[in-house]
Amino acid sequence: MAGEVVLLDFWSSMFAMRVRLALAEKGIKYESKEQDLSNKSPLLLEMNPINKQVPVLIHNGKPVCESLIIVQYIDEVWNDKSPLLPSDPYQRAQARFWADFVDKKVSVAAKNVWSTKGEEQEAGKKEFLETLKIMEGELGDKPYFGGETFGYVDLSLITFYSWFHAYEVLGNINIEAECPKIIAWAKRCMQKEAVAKTLPDQKKVYEFVVQLRKMFVSE
Amino acid sequence: MAEEVLVFGTWSSPYGRRVEMALKLKGIEYKYIEEDLTNKSPSLLKYNPVHKKIPVLVHNGKPVAESLVILEYIDETWKNHPIFPKDPYERANARFWAKFIDEKCLPAIRKACWGEDQKEREKAAEELSKLLQFLENELEGKRYFGGGTIGLLDIAANMIGYWLGVFEEASGASELLTREKFPKLFNWANEFVSVSAIKESLPPRDKHVAFMRKRFGMVNTSK
């Protein structure tokens, strides 16, 4: 079960963070290899020839790609502690559905908040806040999306929290005012040691995104 | 309690048919509801308020949406004729290729068949060729993506196994999946559609070609 675990990583990628968080939750020792995404390493290109992206988990020499696929893999291999997905098939289907929603809707809208301007940005902001409100509806009165404990859906969304300051400044939005439940939920998650240790500092992420934005938007 | 399984779909959608294929493989009885996507039923909106899309599986009143999520649910609920491998690495692999098909192959297929101009179509066809090569390699030494029997990835690849051929014929696109270029994939497609649970789940071909031609046009007329 143990063996060698390597993560092709990037400190500010919310997708790589998901994997770091899953590994931390399960107490799995691994080697993080920070990648230079502007100059991709032969190892990255060999392990993820199709998307050439982080994260990639390399377990005993075999690569697994795509953050949610990696997280499910981790949950299935290291199945003796801290389960991330519920055991009931219907609950599992719901968890997969909502993590997929984060990827297909929240993530796409979030990107438009920082990487566009003008009308496109306005549309992105609106969409982003709407998707967070939909997530709030799903959360309801539960402490976590997973119910009483932190789970798969929580993990899939919480990593975006490290980018919230960047979204707020660059998008001129107030997420707490619009989605107070999401902020309350995020702060609750941040009280978990694994989450607090895994997520990078929001200001550091903001500085990174300011630079990244220049590649997308001429101002 | 008698079990009730409903499937909301449309007759020509590969996504809805995926769900039917999995249920038929496992011999699960279900009631199929044809949706008119220009006039969505109150039931569909109730069962999938987030995306308002098909397919939706409703099992004893509880809805599951998104075709790949539904396929995993079906396999976890009805354990006969398993379609998903047990080994975590193989499962990750199947999930990866299913995502690859949906996110990369499908858009390339649409553009190769119905892109706005010849240049766009040719570029998409080239891209699709590269993508299909990955799948060709995946079939190395295997009869189906699932190994000896049809699995989740074969079902997820239904777009390539059948719908691609229909789209080629409807749009007049030059053959994108040929025996010469992709012998394993070509062979797989023929084997795939011969499996009875799959064959029974395919839309009627002539009707399908005519429908796609009417909807998107026959754009590739010069050969």
From TrEMBL, chain A:
<dbReference type="InterPro" id="IPR040079">
    <property type="entry name" value="Glutathione_S-Trfase"/>
</dbReference>
<dbReference type="GO" id="GO:0004364">
    <property type="term" value="F:glutathione transferase activity"/>
</dbReference>
<dbReference type="GO" id="GO:0005829">
    <property type="term" value="C:cytosol"/>
</dbReference>
<feature type="domain" description="GST N-terminal">
    <location>
        <begin position="3"/>
        <end position="82"/>
    </location>
</feature>
<dbReference type="InterPro" id="IPR010987">
    <property type="entry name" value="Glutathione-S-Trfase_C-like"/>
</dbReference>
<dbReference type="InterPro" id="IPR036249">
    <property type="entry name" value="Thioredoxin-like_sf"/>
</dbReference>
<comment type="function">
    <text>Is involved in the conjugation of reduced glutathione to a wide number of exogenous and endogenous hydrophobic electrophiles.</text>
</comment>
<dbReference type="Pfam" id="PF13410">
    <property type="entry name" value="GST_C_2"/>
</dbReference>
<dbReference type="InterPro" id="IPR045074">
    <property type="entry name" value="GST_C_Tau"/>
</dbReference>
<dbReference type="GO" id="GO:0006749">
    <property type="term" value="P:glutathione metabolic process"/>
</dbReference>
<protein>
    <recommendedName>
        <fullName>Glutathione S-transferase</fullName>
        <ecNumber>2.5.1.18</ecNumber>
    </recommendedName>
</protein>
<dbReference type="InterPro" id="IPR004045">
    <property type="entry name" value="Glutathione_S-Trfase_N"/>
</dbReference>
<keyword id="KW-0808">Transferase</keyword>
<feature type="domain" description="GST C-terminal">
    <location>
        <begin position="88"/>
        <end position="216"/>
    </location>
</feature>
<keyword id="KW-0963">Cytoplasm</keyword>
<comment type="similarity">
    <text>Belongs to the GST superfamily.</text>
</comment>
<dbReference type="Pfam" id="PF02798">
    <property type="entry name" value="GST_N"/>
</dbReference>
<dbReference type="InterPro" id="IPR036282">
    <property type="entry name" value="Glutathione-S-Trfase_C_sf"/>
</dbReference>
<dbReference type="InterPro" id="IPR045073">
    <property type="entry name" value="Omega/Tau-like"/>
</dbReference>
TrEMBL record, chain B:
<dbReference type="Pfam" id="PF00043">
    <property type="entry name" value="GST_C"/>
</dbReference>
<dbReference type="InterPro" id="IPR045073">
    <property type="entry name" value="Omega/Tau-like"/>
</dbReference>
<dbReference type="GO" id="GO:0005737">
    <property type="term" value="C:cytoplasm"/>
</dbReference>
<dbReference type="InterPro" id="IPR004046">
    <property type="entry name" value="GST_C"/>
</dbReference>
<dbReference type="GO" id="GO:0006749">
    <property type="term" value="P:glutathione metabolic process"/>
</dbReference>
<feature type="domain" description="GST N-terminal">
    <location>
        <begin position="3"/>
        <end position="82"/>
    </location>
</feature>
<dbReference type="InterPro" id="IPR010987">
    <property type="entry name" value="Glutathione-S-Trfase_C-like"/>
</dbReference>
<dbReference type="InterPro" id="IPR036282">
    <property type="entry name" value="Glutathione-S-Trfase_C_sf"/>
</dbReference>
<dbReference type="InterPro" id="IPR040079">
    <property type="entry name" value="Glutathione_S-Trfase"/>
</dbReference>
<feature type="domain" description="GST C-terminal">
    <location>
        <begin position="87"/>
        <end position="216"/>
    </location>
</feature>
<protein>
    <recommendedName>
        <fullName>glutathione transferase</fullName>
        <ecNumber>2.5.1.18</ecNumber>
    </recommendedName>
</protein>
<comment type="similarity">
    <text>Belongs to the GST superfamily.</text>
</comment>
<dbReference type="Pfam" id="PF02798">
    <property type="entry name" value="GST_N"/>
</dbReference>
<dbReference type="InterPro" id="IPR004045">
    <property type="entry name" value="Glutathione_S-Trfase_N"/>
</dbReference>
<keyword id="KW-0808">Transferase</keyword>
<dbReference type="InterPro" id="IPR045074">
    <property type="entry name" value="GST_C_Tau"/>
</dbReference>
<dbReference type="InterPro" id="IPR036249">
    <property type="entry name" value="Thioredoxin-like_sf"/>
</dbReference>
<dbReference type="GO" id="GO:0004364">
    <property type="term" value="F:glutathione transferase activity"/>
</dbReference>
